[in-house]
């Protein structure tokens, strides 16, 4: 979750997620939503919190809609067949094989199960025939 997203959840639920220096991210967000300067002491006012909740409702709902499955899925054994110009790899989440003329290992998500692929653990691209030379 980003700090900006935490500010939205904090505004809508009233649960303190950002403290210390990060509180300013929340404060700035509130001022943008209420379109006016907000004094720190106003955060103790229930009527102000009601306005904050109302003003952040749309952002909160949009945030909930954008939720994705967090997985450690990755493409296993991404293979390239130079004869057919086809890349293939297996999704570690659903174990299904995916073939494409584009580099499967670069796909950010699995087209079968929708798992988000962990880009930082990109498997090494193996090109057929190299081992035989
Ligand atoms: Zn999958």
What oligomeric state best describes the polypeptide chains here? single chain
Instruction: Determine the strand fraction and express it as a percent band.
Output: 5-15%
Task: List ligands, each type once.
Answer: zinc ion
The tally of helices reads 3
Q: Poorly predicted ranges (pLDDT <50, ≥5 residues)?
A: none
Computed CA radius of gyration, to the nearest angstrom:
23 Å
Based on Cα principal axes, name the global outline: rod-shaped
Mean pLDDT comes to: 86
Spatial arrangement of strands, main beta sheet: 3-2-1-4
Largest sheet: 4 strands, mixed
Q: Summarize the amount of helix as a percent range.
A: 25-40%
Q: N- to C-terminal separation? A: 47 Å
The overall strand count is 4
Number of domains: 2
Structural class: alpha+beta
Question: Helix and strand succession?
Answer: HHHEEEE
């Amino acid at each position: 979750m980003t700090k900006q997203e935490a500010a939205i959840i904090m505004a809508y639920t009233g649960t303190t997620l950002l403290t210390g220096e990060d509180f300013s991210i929340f404060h700035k967000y509130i001022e943008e939503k209420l379109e006016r300067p907000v004094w720190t002491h106003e955060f103790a006012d229930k009527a102000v919190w009601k306005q904050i909740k109302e003003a952040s409702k749309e952002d909160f709902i949009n945030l909930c809609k954008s939720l994705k499955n967090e997985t450690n899925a990755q493409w296993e054994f991404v293979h390239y067949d130079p004869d057919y110009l086809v890349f293939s790899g297996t999704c570690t989440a659903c174990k299904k094989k995916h073939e494409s003329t584009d580099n499967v290992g670069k796909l950010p998500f699995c087209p079968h199960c929708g798992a988000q692929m962990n880009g930082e653990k990109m498997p090494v691209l193996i090109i057929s025939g190299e081992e035989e030379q």
